[in-house]
């Protein structure tokens, strides 16, 4: 019987170097007045951006009652399942841990606002990706940075922005656009010993004639060998994504149900009564691809979809309130069967299903002794 603890890589102790602590305290206590800091963390893949961002959150929470977190890494999300761009407001210290003992990942949180991008990279649609990020930042500014909002939140709500490790080519251009739009008070650049993989020095996102008040803080990756070479944090990215998806849908089951293995979760989800949704009451949108009308139901079955509410403004900005698994479709009754942890009162507001490329973890479909409705036991050869 496979458990999550048996399949994930061993936990590694997190040691925050003094350089990182100094950088975090500089950001948190750089100003004794409003506005609160807006810190963007960037650097190459596996350099420790997420770990630094979590540490910065905790340091900021020692001064501020709440801290906002804008997660722009759709492949390695921090507080949500993969494929989402989100703004989450944190009011409690985070536990620094890189491993999970069971299927209840403690850092899953309900975002204040999010959009379903539907992929683990921005490569397929950089324009929409940036549009969502800008909309989330605008929402943060509106809700937490207007003068009356700062008064209500006392010292204000600082913002931490975590970014993907794709910092070359189009990824670099995306980061530059993000920095220009947000204009953060602080930019933390994490550097590794392989110079060619690092971001350029200085205010690389601005032209020479442009001025900025942004404070740039450069730090080295946390782990180095005896020759001062960076030891990158190697993560099984796919496994981490699968763990977050499983932890998210674990919330469909009663909390008192003891589920600690993949097999137990697969059985519990298979036994979970689905919601019935009338196909006529919703719109279906396929992200990043086109699907013929005759194939829509086939493409939806056994997939993860974003549950969204159509934008009243007519813009392509439909906020997502959660994810669901399409358990089955009754084409005669035009009924769609959905499994989701989203409460019924919130689910009633959903009028748009978004299908991307976020998949049900294969390990949930191949559990020995559990018959999945989406896997064929016997396949006849085609002529």
UniProtKB/TrEMBL annotation:
GO BP field: cleavage in ITS2 between 5.8S rRNA and LSU-rRNA of tricistronic rRNA transcript (SSU-rRNA, 5.8S rRNA, LSU-rRNA)
Keyword Ion transport: no
Gene Ontology cellular-component terms listed: nucleolus
One example GO MF annotation: polynucleotide 5'-hydroxyl-kinase activity
Record carries keyword Transferase: yes
NOL9 C-terminal domain: residues covered: 271-361
Boundaries of every Clp1 P-loop domain copy: 43-250
Cell compartment(s), UniProt: Nucleus, Nucleolus
Keywords noted in UniProt: ATP-binding, Kinase, Nucleotide-binding, Nucleus, rRNA processing, Transferase
Family: Belongs to the Clp1 family. NOL9/GRC3 subfamily.
Name of the featured protein: Polynucleotide 5'-hydroxyl-kinase NOL9 isoform X1
